[in-house]
Structure formats: C-alpha cells, structure tokens
C-alpha cells in the first residue's frame, strides 16, 4: 500500500508533508494517499514514500515523506497538474511542506519549501568553510591532552560532528552563506555564485593566516 525506499541513498531529496486530518477521516486519507503515490510514481526520479500515523500524545498530524533522486525531479512533481488536482480535495488541504536535502542532513534545512535545496557542490564548499576552523580550534583545544593519533582523531571527529551540527553551520556557515546557498529568484547569475565562492575562499584564507600566526609564530602545538 505504501511505496518504501529499499536502499539507503544519502543523495536523495525528500519532501516532508504534515497533514492535519480529522480523526474520522484516517481511512479516507490512506485511500487518497494511494492515489498520490500512483500518480507520483510515474514521475522521473521517484524513489518511494512513507506514511507515519498520528501518535496520541506525541504527534497529532499525519506525516508523509516523498523521496526523489534530485531536486529538479522533486520540483517537477511539486508543481505538476496531477498534484494540484489531488490537493483540491478539501478534506486534506490543510498541510505544511518542507524539503530536505540529505547530503548533509539538517545542516541546510532553511525551512523554505519554495526553493530547491542547495546543490551538492555548494553544500560541500559551505561545509569546507565551516569544517576548517572547527577542526583547527578543536585540535588546539585537545592537543594539550597528549592523546595518540588514533584516539585524538576519534575524539576530534566526534567533537567536530556535534560542533558542526549544533553551532558551526547554524550560527556561522548558514548565517554567512544563506544568500549564496539559496539565492533569491531574481539574483543575478552567474555573478552571485561567483561572489559566494570568492567569499568562501577569502574567509578560509583569512582563517589560514590567523592559524599560521597563532600556531607557528606565537605558539606551537605540544
């Protein structure tokens, strides 16, 4: 009844839709969802969908995750006439939609469903900008502990993952680069993309100079 993803693929793009459905319309909603999947599965790039029922006391809404191989294929479905016709059913028109690029999980979830997620190239460059200072700072902080390489890398990677998820990308990377990662529809191209890339290079060059001065000229790692 529900098409499910058979293979884990981090490159998939997912749209998560929450529907507020009347309590007595659960079965009708599932029948409606079957029609959605039948239409959706005929579109290029469709990789499956999952339905999550309401959980009393925890989750009031029905949640559906639709998966596509690329943002372009997902957008083709989202703006399609078939989807528009299905959403005309007044019983299930109360919903919220959010797109997620799984390349780096929620690091680039801006909460704006009107645009496709950033490309893999842009997210990789943004992660590079965030990862470099994060790793150097953590290396400097943990160096006095004198851990062997294998243990230092294990601890460092653990700390880096959490720092990137909860601080670096939220308050540094995305804050600086949102205009480049998800430019406005009227942004001039390719000048916007070029300026964003040059900004990343300049920021990392500045960090490199700071770290060189700190760790070579003024202080050295133990």
Could you explain how this protein is built, in words?
It is a single chain. With 222 residues, the protein is α+β, with helices and mostly antiparallel strands. It has 2 domains: 13-102, Alpha-Beta Plaits, CATH 3.30.70.100; 120-218, no CATH class. It is 51% helix and 13% strand. It is built from 6 helices and 4 strands. A 4-stranded antiparallel β-sheet has the order 2-3-1-4. The longest helix is centred in the last third of the chain and has 33 residues, at 149-181. Mean pLDDT is 82; it is low at 1-10.
For the structure shown, list the relevant keywords.
Alpha-Beta Plaits, disordered N terminus, four-stranded antiparallel sheet, single chain, 4 strands, 222 residues
Structural class: alpha+beta
Order of helices and strands: EHEEHHEHHH
- Strand percentage lies at 5-15%
Please state how the strands of the largest beta sheet are arranged side by side. 2-3-1-4
* Spans where pLDDT lies below 50 across 5 or more residues: 1-10
* Strand element count: 4
Indicate the radius of gyration in whole angstroms.
22 Å
Biggest sheet features: 4 strands, antiparallel
Mean pLDDT: 82
Determine the fraction of residues in helical runs and give it as a percent range.
Answer: 40-55%
Separate helix tally: 6
Distance linking N and C termini: 61 Å
Q: Outline, from the CA principal axes?
A: elongated
How many individual domains?
2
């Amino acid at each position: 009844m529900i098409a499910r993803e058979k293979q884990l693929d981090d490159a998939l793009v997912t749209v998560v839709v929450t529907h507020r459905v009347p309590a007595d319309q659960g079965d009708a909603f599932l029948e409606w969802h079957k029609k959605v999947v039948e239409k959706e599965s005929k579109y290029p790039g469709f990789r499956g969908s999952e339905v999550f029922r309401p959980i009393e006391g925890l989750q009031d809404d029905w949640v559906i995750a639709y998966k596509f191989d690329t943002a372009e294929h997902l957008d083709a479905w989202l703006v399609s006439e078939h989807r528009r016709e299905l959403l005309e059913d007044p019983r299930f028109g109360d919903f919220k939609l959010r797109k997620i690029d799984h390349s780096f999980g929620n690091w680039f979830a801006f909460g704006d469903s009107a645009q496709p997620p950033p490309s893999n190239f842009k997210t990789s460059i943004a992660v590079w900008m965030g990862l470099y200072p994060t790793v150097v700072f953590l290396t400097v902080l943990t160096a006095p502990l004198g851990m062997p390489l294998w243990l230092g890398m294990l601890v460092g990677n653990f700390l880096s993952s959490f720092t990137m998820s909860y601080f670096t990308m939220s308050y540094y990377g995305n804050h600086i680069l949102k205009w480049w990662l998800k430019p406005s529809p009227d942004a001039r191209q390719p000048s916007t993309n070029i300026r964003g890339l040059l900004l990343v290079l300049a920021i990392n060059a500045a960090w490199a100079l700071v770290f060189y001065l700190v760790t070579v000229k003024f202080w050295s790692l133990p």
